[in-house]
Design goal:
The complex is a heterodimer of chains A (256) and B (304). Chain A has 256 residues and is an alpha+beta fold. Helices cover 31% and strands 40% of the residues of chain A. In chain A, a hairpin with a 2-residue loop joins strand 5 and strand 6. Chain B has a two-stranded antiparallel sheet. A two-stranded antiparallel ribbon of chain B has the order 3-4. Chain B is globular, with a radius of gyration of 19 Å. The chains are: A alpha+beta (256), B mainly alpha (304). Chain B: Belongs to the 4-toluene sulfonate uptake permease (TSUP) (TC 2.A.102) family.
Protein backbone atom coordinates (compact mmCIF):
# COMPACT_ATOMS: atom_id res chain seq x y z
CA UNK A 1 0.00 0.00 0.00
CA UNK A 2 2.68 2.45 0.97
CA UNK A 3 5.41 0.76 -1.01
CA UNK A 4 4.58 2.57 -4.27
CA UNK A 5 4.77 5.85 -2.38
CA UNK A 6 8.20 5.03 -1.08
CA UNK A 7 9.38 4.07 -4.55
CA UNK A 8 8.16 7.38 -5.85
CA UNK A 9 9.96 9.16 -3.04
CA UNK A 10 13.04 7.15 -3.84
CA UNK A 11 12.88 8.29 -7.45
CA UNK A 12 12.50 11.94 -6.47
CA UNK A 13 15.40 11.73 -4.05
CA UNK A 14 17.66 10.07 -6.61
CA UNK A 15 16.95 12.87 -9.04
CA UNK A 16 17.53 15.52 -6.40
CA UNK A 17 20.62 13.96 -4.88
CA UNK A 18 22.56 14.39 -8.10
CA UNK A 19 26.31 14.58 -8.28
CA UNK A 20 26.68 16.82 -5.21
CA UNK A 21 25.84 14.00 -2.77
CA UNK A 22 28.45 12.55 -0.46
CA UNK A 23 30.16 9.34 -1.42
CA UNK A 24 28.41 7.28 1.27
CA UNK A 25 24.97 5.85 0.68
CA UNK A 26 22.04 7.39 2.47
CA UNK A 27 18.91 6.07 4.15
CA UNK A 28 15.31 7.01 3.54
CA UNK A 29 13.37 5.45 6.43
CA UNK A 30 9.68 5.38 7.14
CA UNK A 31 7.34 3.74 9.63
CA UNK A 32 3.87 2.35 9.14
CA UNK A 33 2.57 4.55 11.94
CA UNK A 34 4.07 7.51 13.70
CA UNK A 35 1.43 7.40 16.43
CA UNK A 36 0.69 4.55 18.77
CA UNK A 37 -2.54 5.18 20.57
CA UNK A 38 -3.28 3.34 23.78
CA UNK A 39 -6.98 2.71 23.91
CA UNK A 40 -9.13 0.47 26.09
CA UNK A 41 -8.31 -2.64 24.08
CA UNK A 42 -4.58 -1.97 23.67
CA UNK A 43 -2.59 -5.20 23.85
CA UNK A 44 0.56 -4.10 22.05
CA UNK A 45 1.12 -3.29 18.42
CA UNK A 46 3.23 -4.47 15.52
CA UNK A 47 4.78 -1.70 13.51
CA UNK A 48 6.39 -1.93 10.12
CA UNK A 49 9.65 -0.09 9.54
CA UNK A 50 10.81 0.15 5.97
CA UNK A 51 12.82 2.31 3.63
CA UNK A 52 15.37 2.51 0.92
CA UNK A 53 19.13 2.72 0.70
CA UNK A 54 20.25 5.48 -1.70
CA UNK A 55 23.54 5.00 -3.48
CA UNK A 56 25.09 8.23 -4.77
CA UNK A 57 26.69 8.63 -8.20
CA UNK A 58 24.57 5.81 -9.64
CA UNK A 59 26.75 3.36 -7.80
CA UNK A 60 25.50 -0.21 -7.99
CA UNK A 61 23.72 -1.54 -4.92
CA UNK A 62 26.08 -3.10 -2.44
CA UNK A 63 25.08 -6.67 -1.68
CA UNK A 64 27.03 -6.75 1.56
CA UNK A 65 25.02 -4.20 3.57
CA UNK A 66 23.26 -4.69 6.86
CA UNK A 67 20.46 -2.77 8.43
CA UNK A 68 20.01 -2.47 12.19
CA UNK A 69 16.92 -0.84 13.61
CA UNK A 70 16.76 0.32 17.20
CA UNK A 71 13.53 1.39 18.87
CA UNK A 72 14.12 3.20 22.11
CA UNK A 73 11.63 4.64 24.58
CA UNK A 74 12.27 7.52 26.95
CA UNK A 75 15.11 6.93 29.43
CA UNK A 76 14.26 7.30 33.09
CA UNK A 77 16.19 6.92 36.33
CA UNK A 78 15.32 3.64 38.04
CA UNK A 79 16.25 1.61 41.06
CA UNK A 80 16.90 -2.09 40.62
CA UNK A 81 16.38 -4.19 43.70
CA UNK A 82 17.62 -7.69 44.30
CA UNK A 83 15.70 -10.15 46.45
CA UNK A 84 17.57 -12.35 48.85
CA UNK A 85 16.46 -14.87 51.44
CA UNK A 86 16.68 -13.23 54.84
CA UNK A 87 15.39 -15.21 57.81
CA UNK A 88 13.48 -17.54 55.51
CA UNK A 89 11.75 -14.72 53.67
CA UNK A 90 12.60 -13.54 50.20
CA UNK A 91 12.85 -9.78 50.40
CA UNK A 92 14.57 -6.91 48.66
CA UNK A 93 18.12 -6.49 49.89
CA UNK A 94 20.69 -4.69 47.74
CA UNK A 95 19.76 -1.95 45.31
CA UNK A 96 21.54 -0.19 42.46
CA UNK A 97 20.38 3.02 40.83
CA UNK A 98 20.54 3.60 37.09
CA UNK A 99 20.37 7.17 35.86
CA UNK A 100 19.10 6.39 32.38
CA UNK A 101 17.39 3.11 31.61
CA UNK A 102 15.26 3.12 28.46
CA UNK A 103 11.64 2.35 29.24
CA UNK A 104 11.52 0.38 26.02
CA UNK A 105 14.28 -1.04 23.79
CA UNK A 106 13.95 -3.26 20.76
CA UNK A 107 16.70 -4.03 18.32
CA UNK A 108 16.15 -5.75 15.01
CA UNK A 109 18.81 -6.60 12.44
CA UNK A 110 19.40 -8.61 9.32
CA UNK A 111 22.09 -10.74 10.98
CA UNK A 112 23.31 -11.19 14.57
CA UNK A 113 24.89 -7.94 15.77
CA UNK A 114 28.17 -9.67 16.59
CA UNK A 115 28.50 -10.69 12.91
CA UNK A 116 27.81 -7.18 11.66
CA UNK A 117 30.05 -4.96 13.81
CA UNK A 118 32.87 -5.40 16.29
CA UNK A 119 32.31 -4.90 20.00
CA UNK A 120 33.71 -1.40 20.07
CA UNK A 121 31.41 -0.11 17.35
CA UNK A 122 28.45 -1.86 18.96
CA UNK A 123 29.24 -0.15 22.26
CA UNK A 124 29.58 3.28 20.64
CA UNK A 125 26.22 3.08 18.94
CA UNK A 126 24.56 1.20 21.83
CA UNK A 127 23.70 -1.72 19.59
CA UNK A 128 22.39 -4.65 21.57
CA UNK A 129 20.99 -5.03 25.07
CA UNK A 130 24.39 -5.55 26.64
CA UNK A 131 25.63 -2.26 25.25
CA UNK A 132 22.99 -0.06 26.86
CA UNK A 133 24.44 2.96 28.63
CA UNK A 134 22.56 2.70 31.90
CA UNK A 135 24.77 5.14 33.87
CA UNK A 136 24.74 3.25 37.18
CA UNK A 137 25.04 5.00 40.51
CA UNK A 138 25.93 3.67 43.90
CA UNK A 139 27.27 0.24 43.03
CA UNK A 140 30.13 -1.29 44.98
CA UNK A 141 31.82 -3.69 42.58
CA UNK A 142 31.88 -4.46 38.85
CA UNK A 143 30.62 -7.94 39.72
CA UNK A 144 27.59 -6.55 41.47
CA UNK A 145 26.91 -4.14 38.62
CA UNK A 146 27.15 -6.95 36.08
CA UNK A 147 24.68 -9.01 38.11
CA UNK A 148 22.16 -6.20 38.34
CA UNK A 149 22.42 -5.29 34.67
CA UNK A 150 21.88 -8.89 33.66
CA UNK A 151 18.96 -9.08 36.08
CA UNK A 152 17.35 -5.97 34.60
CA UNK A 153 17.79 -7.11 31.01
CA UNK A 154 16.51 -10.58 31.82
CA UNK A 155 13.45 -9.21 33.59
CA UNK A 156 12.58 -6.74 30.85
CA UNK A 157 13.12 -9.35 28.17
CA UNK A 158 10.48 -11.56 29.70
CA UNK A 159 7.96 -8.74 29.93
CA UNK A 160 9.00 -7.97 26.33
CA UNK A 161 9.96 -4.40 27.17
CA UNK A 162 13.43 -5.25 25.89
CA UNK A 163 13.92 -7.44 22.84
CA UNK A 164 16.54 -8.53 20.35
CA UNK A 165 15.73 -10.08 17.00
CA UNK A 166 18.54 -10.92 14.62
CA UNK A 167 16.20 -11.77 11.77
CA UNK A 168 13.71 -8.93 12.00
CA UNK A 169 15.08 -7.04 9.01
CA UNK A 170 14.99 -8.29 5.44
CA UNK A 171 16.83 -6.50 2.65
CA UNK A 172 15.87 -6.79 -0.99
CA UNK A 173 18.59 -6.52 -3.57
CA UNK A 174 20.60 -4.25 -1.33
CA UNK A 175 18.14 -1.41 -1.89
CA UNK A 176 14.90 -1.88 0.00
CA UNK A 177 14.57 -3.05 3.56
CA UNK A 178 11.69 -3.79 5.83
CA UNK A 179 11.19 -4.99 9.40
CA UNK A 180 8.20 -5.63 11.55
CA UNK A 181 8.72 -5.08 15.25
CA UNK A 182 6.40 -5.48 18.21
CA UNK A 183 5.63 -2.81 20.73
CA UNK A 184 4.34 -4.55 23.90
CA UNK A 185 1.28 -3.55 25.93
CA UNK A 186 3.48 -2.35 28.77
CA UNK A 187 5.28 0.23 26.63
CA UNK A 188 5.72 3.49 28.55
CA UNK A 189 3.97 6.57 27.28
CA UNK A 190 6.22 9.09 25.52
CA UNK A 191 8.34 9.21 22.43
CA UNK A 192 10.02 6.27 20.77
CA UNK A 193 13.01 7.02 18.57
CA UNK A 194 13.37 4.62 15.68
CA UNK A 195 17.00 4.69 14.56
CA UNK A 196 18.08 2.92 11.44
CA UNK A 197 21.76 2.10 10.95
CA UNK A 198 23.24 1.24 7.60
CA UNK A 199 26.32 -0.88 8.13
CA UNK A 200 28.71 -2.32 5.62
CA UNK A 201 31.93 -4.22 6.30
CA UNK A 202 31.74 -3.36 10.00
CA UNK A 203 31.41 0.37 9.39
CA UNK A 204 28.35 2.48 10.13
CA UNK A 205 27.74 4.35 6.88
CA UNK A 206 24.52 6.16 7.62
CA UNK A 207 22.11 6.75 10.49
CA UNK A 208 18.60 8.05 10.13
CA UNK A 209 15.89 8.42 12.72
CA UNK A 210 12.17 8.74 12.94
CA UNK A 211 9.99 9.51 15.92
CA UNK A 212 6.99 7.53 17.06
CA UNK A 213 4.67 8.94 19.67
CA UNK A 214 3.07 6.65 22.21
CA UNK A 215 0.15 8.22 24.00
CA UNK A 216 -2.97 7.32 25.79
CA UNK A 217 -6.01 8.68 24.04
CA UNK A 218 -9.59 9.42 24.90
CA UNK A 219 -10.83 7.85 28.08
CA UNK A 220 -7.53 6.22 29.11
CA UNK A 221 -5.70 9.50 28.76
CA UNK A 222 -8.39 11.34 30.69
CA UNK A 223 -8.27 8.83 33.56
CA UNK A 224 -4.47 8.84 33.82
CA UNK A 225 -4.38 12.63 33.68
CA UNK A 226 -7.19 13.05 36.22
CA UNK A 227 -5.53 10.63 38.65
CA UNK A 228 -2.29 12.61 38.54
CA UNK A 229 -3.60 16.17 38.43
CA UNK A 230 -7.00 16.15 40.11
CA UNK A 231 -6.49 13.62 42.90
CA UNK A 232 -9.28 15.01 45.04
CA UNK A 233 -11.97 14.90 42.38
CA UNK A 234 -10.68 11.56 41.15
CA UNK A 235 -10.96 10.15 44.67
CA UNK A 236 -14.41 11.67 45.02
CA UNK A 237 -15.56 10.03 41.80
CA UNK A 238 -14.15 6.67 42.94
CA UNK A 239 -15.99 6.99 46.26
CA UNK A 240 -19.28 8.07 44.68
CA UNK A 241 -19.06 5.26 42.16
CA UNK A 242 -18.54 2.63 44.84
CA UNK A 243 -21.41 4.05 46.92
CA UNK A 244 -23.67 4.15 43.86
CA UNK A 245 -22.84 0.57 42.92
CA UNK A 246 -23.49 -0.72 46.42
CA UNK A 247 -26.71 1.27 46.73
CA UNK A 248 -27.97 0.29 43.28
CA UNK A 249 -27.39 -3.41 43.88
CA UNK A 250 -29.10 -3.42 47.25
CA UNK A 251 -32.02 -1.37 45.90
CA UNK A 252 -32.43 -3.60 42.87
CA UNK A 253 -32.17 -6.90 44.70
CA UNK A 254 -34.09 -5.58 47.70
CA UNK A 255 -37.19 -5.01 45.59
CA UNK A 256 -37.35 -8.53 44.30
CA UNK B 1 -12.17 -9.65 26.59
CA UNK B 2 -8.98 -7.66 27.08
CA UNK B 3 -9.24 -4.29 28.73
CA UNK B 4 -6.43 -1.82 29.32
CA UNK B 5 -6.10 -0.51 32.87
CA UNK B 6 -5.01 3.13 32.58
CA UNK B 7 -3.33 3.35 36.00
CA UNK B 8 -1.91 -0.14 36.31
CA UNK B 9 -0.64 0.28 32.71
CA UNK B 10 -1.39 -3.22 31.56
CA UNK B 11 -4.26 -5.04 29.96
CA UNK B 12 -6.30 -7.64 31.82
CA UNK B 13 -9.12 -9.97 30.97
CA UNK B 14 -12.19 -7.99 32.08
CA UNK B 15 -14.26 -11.13 32.67
CA UNK B 16 -11.65 -12.60 35.00
CA UNK B 17 -11.67 -9.44 37.13
CA UNK B 18 -15.48 -9.28 37.19
CA UNK B 19 -15.56 -12.96 38.11
CA UNK B 20 -13.03 -12.35 40.86
CA UNK B 21 -15.16 -9.48 42.16
CA UNK B 22 -18.24 -11.71 42.02
CA UNK B 23 -16.54 -14.52 43.95
CA UNK B 24 -15.25 -12.15 46.61
CA UNK B 25 -18.64 -10.42 46.72
CA UNK B 26 -20.40 -13.74 47.20
CA UNK B 27 -18.12 -14.60 50.11
CA UNK B 28 -18.44 -11.14 51.60
CA UNK B 29 -22.22 -11.21 51.39
CA UNK B 30 -22.22 -14.66 52.93
CA UNK B 31 -19.86 -13.91 55.80
CA UNK B 32 -20.61 -10.22 56.33
CA UNK B 33 -17.04 -9.06 55.71
CA UNK B 34 -15.81 -6.61 53.09
CA UNK B 35 -13.68 -9.15 51.29
CA UNK B 36 -10.66 -6.90 50.77
CA UNK B 37 -8.47 -9.57 52.35
CA UNK B 38 -9.22 -11.76 49.33
CA UNK B 39 -9.24 -9.13 46.59
CA UNK B 40 -5.80 -7.64 47.15
CA UNK B 41 -3.87 -10.95 47.24
CA UNK B 42 -5.78 -12.30 44.24
CA UNK B 43 -5.10 -9.17 42.21
CA UNK B 44 -1.43 -9.48 43.13
CA UNK B 45 -1.39 -13.16 42.06
CA UNK B 46 -2.96 -12.03 38.79
CA UNK B 47 -0.09 -9.63 38.14
CA UNK B 48 -1.48 -6.24 39.17
CA UNK B 49 1.18 -4.12 40.94
CA UNK B 50 0.62 -4.41 44.74
CA UNK B 51 0.19 -0.65 45.17
CA UNK B 52 -2.56 -0.44 42.56
CA UNK B 53 -4.17 -3.60 43.95
CA UNK B 54 -4.31 -2.31 47.52
CA UNK B 55 -5.49 1.15 46.44
CA UNK B 56 -8.25 -0.10 44.16
CA UNK B 57 -9.49 -2.90 46.42
CA UNK B 58 -10.55 -0.37 49.05
CA UNK B 59 -13.28 1.04 46.82
CA UNK B 60 -14.61 -2.44 46.20
CA UNK B 61 -14.90 -2.92 49.96
CA UNK B 62 -16.87 0.33 50.19
CA UNK B 63 -19.31 -0.89 47.56
CA UNK B 64 -19.72 -4.32 49.12
CA UNK B 65 -20.22 -2.91 52.64
CA UNK B 66 -22.57 -0.03 51.90
CA UNK B 67 -25.65 -2.13 51.28
CA UNK B 68 -25.03 -4.13 54.44
CA UNK B 69 -24.60 -0.94 56.42
CA UNK B 70 -27.90 0.44 55.12
CA UNK B 71 -29.72 -2.73 56.05
CA UNK B 72 -28.35 -2.51 59.58
CA UNK B 73 -29.21 1.19 59.84
CA UNK B 74 -32.83 0.44 59.03
CA UNK B 75 -32.87 -2.08 61.86
CA UNK B 76 -31.29 0.48 64.22
CA UNK B 77 -28.22 -1.74 64.43
CA UNK B 78 -25.57 1.00 64.29
CA UNK B 79 -24.10 2.76 67.30
CA UNK B 80 -23.33 6.11 65.69
CA UNK B 81 -21.40 7.44 68.66
CA UNK B 82 -19.14 4.39 68.75
CA UNK B 83 -18.99 4.43 64.94
CA UNK B 84 -17.97 8.09 64.94
CA UNK B 85 -15.09 7.44 67.34
CA UNK B 86 -13.95 4.44 65.27
CA UNK B 87 -14.11 6.47 62.05
CA UNK B 88 -12.13 9.34 63.63
CA UNK B 89 -9.46 6.85 64.62
CA UNK B 90 -9.67 5.20 61.22
CA UNK B 91 -9.05 8.42 59.32
CA UNK B 92 -6.06 9.25 61.53
CA UNK B 93 -4.86 5.69 60.94
CA UNK B 94 -5.18 5.96 57.18
CA UNK B 95 -3.07 9.14 57.20
CA UNK B 96 -0.46 7.34 59.27
CA UNK B 97 -0.76 4.43 56.84
CA UNK B 98 -0.15 6.74 53.89
CA UNK B 99 3.06 7.95 55.52
CA UNK B 100 4.15 4.38 56.22
CA UNK B 101 3.28 3.41 52.65
CA UNK B 102 5.55 6.12 51.24
CA UNK B 103 8.37 5.26 53.63
CA UNK B 104 8.20 1.54 52.84
CA UNK B 105 8.02 2.16 49.10
CA UNK B 106 11.15 4.30 49.30
CA UNK B 107 12.89 1.52 51.21
CA UNK B 108 11.68 -1.06 48.67
CA UNK B 109 10.01 -3.14 51.36
CA UNK B 110 6.32 -2.43 50.74
CA UNK B 111 5.67 -5.76 49.01
CA UNK B 112 7.31 -7.73 51.80
CA UNK B 113 5.35 -5.80 54.43
CA UNK B 114 2.09 -6.38 52.57
CA UNK B 115 2.89 -10.09 52.32
CA UNK B 116 4.02 -10.43 55.93
CA UNK B 117 1.09 -8.37 57.15
CA UNK B 118 -1.32 -10.73 55.44
CA UNK B 119 0.37 -13.86 56.74
CA UNK B 120 0.46 -12.65 60.35
CA UNK B 121 -3.00 -11.11 60.37
CA UNK B 122 -4.87 -13.78 58.46
CA UNK B 123 -2.93 -16.60 60.11
CA UNK B 124 -3.78 -15.40 63.62
CA UNK B 125 -7.40 -14.51 62.94
CA UNK B 126 -7.92 -17.68 60.89
CA UNK B 127 -6.57 -19.93 63.62
CA UNK B 128 -8.62 -18.24 66.33
CA UNK B 129 -11.76 -18.42 64.23
CA UNK B 130 -11.17 -22.01 63.20
CA UNK B 131 -10.74 -23.07 66.82
CA UNK B 132 -13.83 -21.20 67.96
CA UNK B 133 -16.08 -22.38 65.15
CA UNK B 134 -14.81 -25.95 65.35
CA UNK B 135 -15.80 -26.14 69.00
CA UNK B 136 -19.15 -24.58 68.13
CA UNK B 137 -19.78 -27.08 65.34
CA UNK B 138 -18.89 -29.97 67.62
CA UNK B 139 -21.17 -28.64 70.34
CA UNK B 140 -24.07 -28.26 67.92
CA UNK B 141 -23.52 -31.78 66.59
CA UNK B 142 -23.40 -33.23 70.09
CA UNK B 143 -26.66 -31.48 70.88
CA UNK B 144 -25.11 -29.52 73.73
CA UNK B 145 -25.93 -25.84 74.04
CA UNK B 146 -22.97 -23.57 73.32
CA UNK B 147 -21.66 -21.92 76.43
CA UNK B 148 -22.20 -18.19 76.20
CA UNK B 149 -19.36 -16.29 77.79
CA UNK B 150 -20.38 -13.43 80.01
CA UNK B 151 -19.84 -10.20 78.11
CA UNK B 152 -17.29 -7.84 79.63
CA UNK B 153 -14.57 -5.64 78.34
CA UNK B 154 -10.91 -6.39 78.63
CA UNK B 155 -9.16 -5.17 81.83
CA UNK B 156 -6.77 -3.05 79.72
CA UNK B 157 -9.74 -1.17 78.27
CA UNK B 158 -11.13 -0.55 81.74
CA UNK B 159 -7.81 0.94 82.85
CA UNK B 160 -7.91 3.77 80.30
CA UNK B 161 -8.77 7.27 81.57
CA UNK B 162 -11.86 9.34 80.61
CA UNK B 163 -15.12 7.51 80.13
CA UNK B 164 -18.00 8.04 77.70
CA UNK B 165 -21.39 6.44 77.59
CA UNK B 166 -22.17 4.47 74.45
CA UNK B 167 -25.89 3.77 74.91
CA UNK B 168 -26.55 1.59 71.88
CA UNK B 169 -23.57 -0.61 72.70
CA UNK B 170 -24.46 -0.70 76.37
CA UNK B 171 -20.99 0.49 77.36
CA UNK B 172 -19.42 3.04 79.66
CA UNK B 173 -15.77 3.02 78.57
CA UNK B 174 -12.95 5.31 77.54
CA UNK B 175 -13.20 6.45 73.89
CA UNK B 176 -9.44 5.95 73.59
CA UNK B 177 -9.92 2.20 73.18
CA UNK B 178 -12.18 2.38 70.08
CA UNK B 179 -10.09 5.28 68.77
CA UNK B 180 -6.95 3.12 68.82
CA UNK B 181 -8.83 0.19 67.35
CA UNK B 182 -10.10 2.43 64.55
CA UNK B 183 -6.59 3.76 63.92
CA UNK B 184 -5.22 0.22 63.64
CA UNK B 185 -7.80 -0.74 61.02
CA UNK B 186 -7.13 2.56 59.20
CA UNK B 187 -3.44 1.68 58.87
CA UNK B 188 -4.38 -1.80 57.67
CA UNK B 189 -6.83 -0.45 55.12
CA UNK B 190 -4.18 1.80 53.68
CA UNK B 191 -1.40 -0.79 53.60
CA UNK B 192 -3.28 -3.97 52.81
CA UNK B 193 -6.47 -2.77 51.09
CA UNK B 194 -8.61 -4.61 53.63
CA UNK B 195 -11.61 -3.13 55.38
CA UNK B 196 -10.61 -4.72 58.64
CA UNK B 197 -14.01 -6.23 59.46
CA UNK B 198 -12.52 -9.57 60.37
CA UNK B 199 -10.34 -7.94 63.03
CA UNK B 200 -12.84 -5.26 64.05
CA UNK B 201 -15.71 -7.60 64.85
CA UNK B 202 -13.79 -9.92 67.22
CA UNK B 203 -12.13 -6.90 68.84
CA UNK B 204 -15.48 -5.20 69.42
CA UNK B 205 -16.92 -8.35 70.91
CA UNK B 206 -14.04 -9.57 73.04
CA UNK B 207 -11.98 -6.45 73.77
CA UNK B 208 -14.65 -3.76 74.05
CA UNK B 209 -17.48 -6.08 75.02
CA UNK B 210 -20.06 -4.43 72.79
CA UNK B 211 -23.63 -5.71 72.50
CA UNK B 212 -23.90 -8.26 69.70
CA UNK B 213 -26.91 -6.57 68.09
CA UNK B 214 -24.87 -3.50 67.08
CA UNK B 215 -21.45 -5.08 66.40
CA UNK B 216 -21.88 -5.96 62.73
CA UNK B 217 -23.73 -2.76 61.81
CA UNK B 218 -21.23 -0.52 63.58
CA UNK B 219 -18.29 -2.35 62.06
CA UNK B 220 -19.80 -1.93 58.58
CA UNK B 221 -20.36 1.77 59.32
CA UNK B 222 -16.70 2.19 60.22
CA UNK B 223 -15.54 0.14 57.22
CA UNK B 224 -17.57 2.20 54.74
CA UNK B 225 -16.15 5.47 56.02
CA UNK B 226 -12.58 4.32 56.48
CA UNK B 227 -12.36 2.68 53.04
CA UNK B 228 -13.74 5.90 51.57
CA UNK B 229 -11.09 7.87 53.46
CA UNK B 230 -8.39 5.49 52.27
CA UNK B 231 -9.55 5.69 48.65
CA UNK B 232 -9.28 9.46 48.95
CA UNK B 233 -5.87 9.31 50.64
CA UNK B 234 -4.58 7.00 47.92
CA UNK B 235 -5.98 9.32 45.23
CA UNK B 236 -4.15 12.26 46.79
CA UNK B 237 -0.85 10.56 47.65
CA UNK B 238 -0.04 7.41 45.67
CA UNK B 239 -2.34 8.21 42.69
CA UNK B 240 -2.70 4.45 42.39
CA UNK B 241 -6.49 4.01 42.37
CA UNK B 242 -7.40 2.47 39.02
CA UNK B 243 -10.99 3.47 38.27
CA UNK B 244 -11.41 0.90 35.51
CA UNK B 245 -10.16 -1.87 37.79
CA UNK B 246 -12.36 -0.61 40.64
CA UNK B 247 -15.48 -0.52 38.46
CA UNK B 248 -14.85 -4.06 37.19
CA UNK B 249 -14.43 -5.32 40.75
CA UNK B 250 -17.51 -3.42 41.94
CA UNK B 251 -19.60 -4.75 39.10
CA UNK B 252 -18.91 -8.32 40.15
CA UNK B 253 -18.86 -7.85 43.89
CA UNK B 254 -22.07 -5.91 44.52
CA UNK B 255 -24.05 -8.52 42.59
CA UNK B 256 -22.14 -11.40 44.17
CA UNK B 257 -22.72 -9.93 47.64
CA UNK B 258 -26.50 -10.04 47.18
CA UNK B 259 -26.43 -13.70 46.23
CA UNK B 260 -24.03 -14.47 49.06
CA UNK B 261 -26.34 -12.82 51.58
CA UNK B 262 -29.23 -14.97 50.37
CA UNK B 263 -27.20 -18.13 50.50
CA UNK B 264 -26.05 -17.34 54.04
CA UNK B 265 -29.59 -17.57 55.40
CA UNK B 266 -29.78 -21.23 54.40
CA UNK B 267 -26.59 -22.33 56.16
CA UNK B 268 -25.94 -22.75 59.88
CA UNK B 269 -23.76 -19.88 61.18
CA UNK B 270 -21.24 -22.22 62.83
CA UNK B 271 -20.52 -23.87 59.48
CA UNK B 272 -20.24 -20.47 57.84
CA UNK B 273 -17.65 -19.35 60.37
CA UNK B 274 -15.72 -22.57 59.97
CA UNK B 275 -15.71 -22.18 56.18
CA UNK B 276 -14.62 -18.55 56.43
CA UNK B 277 -11.78 -19.45 58.78
CA UNK B 278 -10.58 -22.11 56.33
CA UNK B 279 -10.59 -19.60 53.46
CA UNK B 280 -8.70 -17.09 55.59
CA UNK B 281 -6.11 -19.74 56.49
CA UNK B 282 -5.79 -20.76 52.84
CA UNK B 283 -5.02 -17.20 51.76
CA UNK B 284 -2.51 -16.86 54.61
CA UNK B 285 -0.83 -20.11 53.58
CA UNK B 286 -0.61 -19.03 49.96
CA UNK B 287 0.94 -15.70 50.97
CA UNK B 288 3.41 -17.47 53.27
CA UNK B 289 4.34 -19.84 50.44
CA UNK B 290 4.96 -16.81 48.21
CA UNK B 291 7.32 -15.30 50.78
CA UNK B 292 9.16 -18.51 51.54
CA UNK B 293 9.94 -19.94 48.11
CA UNK B 294 12.42 -18.47 45.70
CA UNK B 295 10.42 -15.96 43.65
CA UNK B 296 10.33 -16.11 39.84
CA UNK B 297 11.77 -12.64 39.69
CA UNK B 298 14.77 -11.93 41.85
CA UNK B 299 15.15 -8.45 40.42
CA UNK B 300 12.56 -5.75 40.40
CA UNK B 301 12.57 -2.28 38.95
CA UNK B 302 11.28 0.81 40.65
CA UNK B 303 10.90 4.07 38.78
CA UNK B 304 10.60 7.18 40.93
Amino acid sequence: MRMPAILLLLGVLILRAGPAAAADPQLVPDVSQSDIEIRYSFAGETILLFGAILYPDRKLPDEDVDIVIVLKGPSVPITIREKRQIGGIWMNAEAVGMRSAPGYYAIGSSRPISDIVDERTAAIYELGLHNLQLSPTGFTSPDQLQRFETGLIDLNRRTRIYSEDASAVSIREGVLYRASMTVPARVPVGGITAQTFLISHGKVLAVASRDITVRKTGFERFIAMAAQKFGFFYGLVAILLSLAFGYAASAYFGRR
Amino acid sequence: MDLYLPIANLSVNALVIIGLGGLVGFLSGMFGVGGGFLTTPMLIFYGIPPTVAAASAASQVTGASVSGMMAHMRRDGVDFRMGGVLVAGGIAGSLLGAWLFRLLTALGQIDTVIGLGYVLLLGTIGLLMARESFTAVRAVRGGKPVRVKRRRHHPLVAALPMRWRFYRSGLYISPIAPLLLGALTGVMTMLLGVGGGFILIPAMLYLLGMGTQVVVGTSLFQIVFVTMASTMTHSLTTHAVDLVLAVLLLLGSVVGAQFGARFAVKVKPEYLRLALSLIVLLVAARMAWGLGIRPDEIYSVQAP
